[in-house]
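Revision sheet: structure tokens.
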Amino acid sequence: MLKTRRGWYLVDIKTDENDKKIKDEKEDALEARRAAIVKRGDNKIARRRSQAEQREAIIAEELSRAQKAIESTQEEIEVAHRLAAELSRRKNEEVKRALKSDHIKSSARSSSSCALEEAQSRLIEEKVRLEANQAELLKLWHEDKIAEKLQRAEDEKKKQNRRKDLQNQLADNQRRVQRRRIEEKEQDRKMMEQEMRKTQVENAKTREEKETNAILLRAEMAASIAAKKVWERKYKEALKDEDERIARIITEKETRHEKQLGIKTELRAAREAAINNVARELLTNVCKERKKQEIADELYREEQKSKWMEEPASRKQYDIAESFKEIAKQKAERKARDEAIDTAFVQYLAELRKKDIEKQREEDNARYAKKIQYGKELKNVITNNRVNYAMNILQR
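Predicted:
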């Protein structure tokens, strides 16, 4: 697994490549989703435009059919009017011809029959006139109906036109809104593409910087490892020299200390020998005194015994009692004196031992303090030497 160094921490190159791959996949998915959204918007706009065109075509077709129906109805009415007028004209002509022929035929008739025929002709003319008026009224009524239908058709056409205008305006507004949205999306897409290109450039630049830094770091690490090996070798040599020097110093110190301890041991042995000699002399003197005292006591007892043998019995008993008392007293005094001597001697020995122990403790404490001080000084010297050596190595 390759690793590179970024700043003061290590980065896994494989992890960085995986992150880049995931980021590229996310960008591709985002671009595909954006393209799908734009495509759906275009499809909706095209569908709405086609629906509007279909509605306009249907409305135009309905208007055309209505106009054709109105025109055909108007043509039928006009044909009916023309037929009615032609029929009325022909009837009038036939009536006139009939009246004329009847007038010619009945010129020889009586005046009463002429008057009757004249009345009939007037009635026929009135009927024809009424039929003509009726036909005219029917024509006017049909014209009014046609005009009303035309007006209604015109109004419907105007409504359709207004509806069409409103629909066109609404469609235009929707198209403008959609166009604005598309433009905004396009701007966003361009901005995102710019950001992505900028990010890609920055990533490429960062990648180049990482690679450059990795190369420099590898070179630096190689140089650092080589320098570290040289420094470790020199440092080990320096430590070895320092350890040897410290070992020599410690050996010399221990030798001097052993010599001092040997001298002190000899002095202590001499002092103990002197104390033993003094104690032995004191014991010898005590033994001599005790022996002298025992001899004196024995002589005194012999003397008293000889005196006792010469004196009478009562006197002997009294002297014996006194002698026993004196002997007991002397024994007690001697015992007390011996105990006092022994106590004084033991106390003397204890004081000597105590003084030796205190002196030895003081010497040991002083020696321990010197060792600690020497160790601290030696540690400071070693630390300073190591720091100076490391600084010299770094300066090189």
